[in-house]
Amino acid sequence: MDHLWTPWRYGYITAGTAGQECVFCSKQQAADRDSFVVFRGEHNFIMLNLYPYNSGHVMIAPYAHIATLEQAEPATREEMMRLTARCEAALRALYKPDGVNLGMNIGACAGAGVAGHIHMHVLPRWCGDASFISVIGETRVLPEELPITWDRLKRALGE
């Protein structure tokens, strides 16, 4: 079995969160551009990941501060999946990736960086995007700054 190590994530994953406001809850009232929120639905919103694996890495989170899918109202879960499909289509159109990762980590031991507030990751992937610079150099190479990604996705997702 091969392993892909991501040591740059360890500090983020293991950092204590006691006393910190939930990143998803704090973004709900902030200005969209300042908080990198690219779309607001009825039950969920879409924001850029501030520590992306690749350009275009977004997260879809419910407005409700809930820790599991089973706690979410059916309308919230349904809208989350519709927005996931919409993000996939927008990322394919904008970035022409070889593939797309979709996923949730529910609970700290499952790898959730924000364990108390569910969120769906949607990110474009290209063959070879986990190159030596990421694996050996512990450095991500992102060809696009977050404000540019925000502009592109904001236009692509519309209102």
Relevant terms:
alpha+beta; HIT family, subunit A; 159 residues; 5-stranded antiparallel β-sheet; 16% strand
The Rg value, from CA coordinates, equals 16 Å
What can be said about the biggest beta sheet? Answer: 5 strands, antiparallel
Shape: globular
| Structural domains: how many | 1
CATH topology: HIT family, subunit A
Q: What is the H/E order?
A: HHHEEEHEEHH
The largest sheet has its strands arranged as: 1-2-3-5-4
Weakly predicted, low-confidence segments: none
Number of helices: 6
CATH class: Alpha Beta
The class by helix and strand makeup works out as alpha+beta
- Helical fraction equals 25-40%
CATH superfamily: HIT-like
The fraction of residues in strands falls at 15-25%
Number of DSSP strand runs: 5
